[in-house]
Every structure is written in structure tokens, then in C-alpha cells.
Amino acid sequence: MPLWKIYHPPSTFTTPSSRQSLARAITAIYTAVPLPAFYVNVLFIPVEADSYYIGGVARPSPHFPDSEPGPDSARPFIRVTIENIARKIPNVEVRDRFLNRVDTALKPYIGDMGYDWEYSVLETSRDLWKIDGFVPPMPGTEAEERWRVENRASGFEAAEGGLEKL
Hints:
The chain is an alpha/beta fold. It has three helices and six strands, in the order E-H-E-E-E-E-H-E-H. It has a four-stranded mixed beta sheet, covered by helices on one side. Strands 3-4 form a two-stranded antiparallel ribbon. Helix 1 (16-31) links the parallel strand 1 and strand 2. Helix 1 (16-31) packs antiparallel against helix 2. The relative contact order is 0.17. The mean pLDDT is 92.
């Protein structure tokens, strides 16, 4: 599963449609692999300016000379953390392709809006992951394809999921 946590000021992503549009753009990154769409989790976490500081300056906040040099503190800042479990990035080419897809998905909703932004990607152990009590099938297996088509977790035999045992 990818888990995206989007930390943002309450003045951004103010409508369900803006959040849904970005969540769909993020989901498309993974369904192109193809992963089941239900693997993709996106959390929008509003953070008040007096709880979010960058370089000791609240973001966003009125811009004061004592916050110089640095970015305009009045601009909203969006922080995204991405946890990938279902797949690992195996090489530089795949890494660059993935990061380009992330940039492309975020740009219309963050970069083009004039916000400052940052993201990081964590790859966590697949061995410690379950969905609805099931160990997810391995990539490219018959069971994973069924999960993708049905867009839900379901039982499967170890062999069809590429697992030694369940």
C-alpha cells in the first residue's frame, strides 16, 4: 500500500472536490503499475499555522524582516510523506520515473497554486503488512490481478499469490 500524508494549512484543499481530484491523481500513479486502486491511501491533514514552523517561522504567517533570508513566510507550505509498501524502487530509472510521476501529480494542486512544498518517500517492509487480515499477494500474481480487478482484498491459495504459506 502507498500511504500519502498531506500536511497542509486549513486554507488549502478546502473542498471535497479538490481533495478528491488530488487523491485520484495520486491513485493513478499506482494503478499504472498496475496496483489495485484500494491499496492507495491519501490523508489530508490540516495543520494550523501556529503549529507548523519552518526555520522557526510559522507557515503561513505575515512576512516579517526577521524571517529573512528565506522563502516568503506568507506562502502556504505543503509537506507530503509517502510510505510505499507494495513495491520497492529497484533502480535509478524506476526511481526517476516514480519521482517524475509524483511531481506531475502534485504540480497542478500545489506547485501551480504558488505553494511551497516538499515530499519524501519511505519504503517499508512488505513482511509486516496485511489488508483485512490477508497477507497481500506478491506482485504480478494471479491473486494480485484478482484483487486489482475486484478492487478489494479476498482470500487466495498461497500458490496463486506467490507466497510460500499464508
